[in-house]
Amino acid sequence: MNWLFVTLTVLIVIAAVLLVLVVLLQNGKGDGMASNFVAANNVLGVRQAANELEKATWYLVSFILIAAIASSFTLGNGGSAAVDITDQVENVTEQQPAFPSAPVSQEAPATESAE
After folding, report:
1. N or C end: fewer C-beta atoms under 10 angstroms in the chain?
2. Taking the complete model, does pTM exceed 0.70, yes or no?
3. Quick check: 77 pLDDT over 80?
């Protein structure tokens, strides 16, 4: 596997975890979890903390999108993800299953008499 692909995949996973945390910290329709962090509210103010969290969300989403597209190009044509089976599909000869032409006669199963 390509070292660049592995590096980008690790960075995407880290960014996804950070994105989950940032989204959970944002204010929702209610107070949200951002109001629980008193130090951030005192230093930045409630409104400025919300703006910084929104910017962080957009930066992380943009990074994940760009890194995912870039990682798809790192595999190239020789990657293990590319499997070419067109020659196998085109060269298939139609084979009929070996079914008997006439039904096979079987004896009726033995029944117990009700006495």
Report:
1. C
2. no
3. no
